[in-house]
Amino acid sequence: SEKLSELFLKHSETEDAVVRKERILEELKTAARKLQMAAREAEAAEAATEVRRLAKDDAQARTTLALLGVVPPLVGLLDAAAEAEGTAAAYCSQIASLYALLNLSIANNANKAAIVKAGAIAKMMKLINAAPNQQTVSEAVAANFLSLSALDSNKPIIGASSGAIPFLVDTLKRRHSSTPQSKCDSLRALSNLSISPRNLLPILETDLVPHLFNRLGADATSANERILSILCNLASVSEGRREIGSVPDAFPILVDVLNWRDSPECQEKASYVLMVMARRSYEDKRAMIEAGIVSALLELTLVGSNLAQRMASRMLESFTTDKAASSPASSLSLINLSDQMEVFDEEDEEEEEEGDSSSAAAGDGGMMSKEKKAVKQLVQLSLQSNMKKMVLRANLPREF
C-alpha cells in the first residue's frame, strides 16, 4: 500500500506539472499569435509587452517563444516604428519590441543568433539615426548590443554594421544625455566587440582610446577592468599600440595601475599592455622607464599576483638585457637579474666598511663595479619615486 501511495503521489505531481506546462504553453501561443496578427501599432505594442513579460525570468519561455516565431514580427516592429515616427503608438511599440528582443536574448545563444540574422542590428541603427536624442531608445539599443555581442559569431556582424561602434563610443562619452546604465552597457559591449580582431580597426577609427585613459581610475573596479581589457585587445595590433603610445601620459597612467594592490586583475591587464608595448618598441620602453616603471615592477614581483609577478619579471629581464638603452634612468640594463639579489645583500656589508672600502674604490677606480653603482642608483630612484607618491597621496606640501 505504501508503494501504491508513492506511485500515486508521484503520478499526481507529474499530472500537475503537465497541466501547468500546458497552461504556460497556451499562454505563450496566445502572446505569439497576438503579436503576429496585430494590425495596429497599439495592438502590436501590447503584444510585444506581453512577450517581454513572459520572457523576462523564464529561460524555457524564451526558447519556446522563439520557436513560436516571435522574433521576425518583433524585428519588423522596429521598421514600423521608424516609418510612423512621432506617434505615441509607434514609440510604445518601438520600446516594447526592443526590450522584448532583449529579454529573449538573455542567456540564449540561439535567440541571439536568430535576432541578428533577422536584421535587427541595421534596424536598430535606423532607429538611432531617426531619433538621435531619444534617450530611452539609445539605452534600449545599447542594452541589446551588449547582450547580442556576447555571442562570438555576432561580434563581427555588429562591428561591421554601419555606425554600431561609433554609436556605442558616443553613448559612452556623452556625459549629460547618457544614463549611467547606458554608459555601463556601452563599455561592456565595446569590451565584447574588441575580442574580435575584425573590430579592432573600426574601434581605432573612433577617439575611444584617449577617452578610456581619461576614465581609467575614475570608475568602479569592474569598469576599470573592462577599460584595461579593451586596451589589452587593442595592443595586439600595431595600429592599437601606436594609438596607445600617442596618448599623453599613457605610460604614467598604466604604471600607476601597477600600484593598485586592491585590484589584482587591473594590475595583470596593465602589465600585459606594458609588456606587449615594451617588447615591440624601444621608444615606448624608454617612456616607461621615465614614468618610473622599474620601481613599480620591483614591487609587483614581491606583492603582485602570480600572473602579475611573472609578467613583471619578464619586463625587468627585458629591461636588463636591452643593450641599446643608454639613458641614466635605464642603467638597470647594464646588469643581469640573477645578480640583483647578491648586490642587494652586499649593500649592508659595504656600508659597514665605510673608510677602507670607499678609499679603495677611489684609489683603484672601482671596487664597486658599474653594475653595483647602477643598482644603487636604481634603489635611490625607487625610494624617491615612492616618497613623491606618498607625498601626493597625503596632500603634503612639495617642500616636504
From TrEMBL:
**InterPro entries, alphabetically?**
ARM-like (IPR011989), ARM-type_fold (IPR016024), ARM_PUB (IPR058678), Armadillo (IPR000225)
Keywords, A to Z, come to: Coiled coil, Repeat
Please list where the region (Disordered) is annotated: 342-373
Q: Which residues form the U-box domain?
A: 28-320
The source's superkingdom equals: Eukaryota
User: Pfam families from the entry?
Assistant: ARM_PUB
> What segments bear the compositional bias annotation Acidic residues?
342-356
PANTHER family, per database record:
ARM REPEAT SUPERFAMILY PROTEIN (PTHR46700)
The identity of this protein, by name, is: U-box domain-containing protein
Taxonomy, top ranks, is: Eukaryota, Viridiplantae, Streptophyta, Embryophyta, Tracheophyta
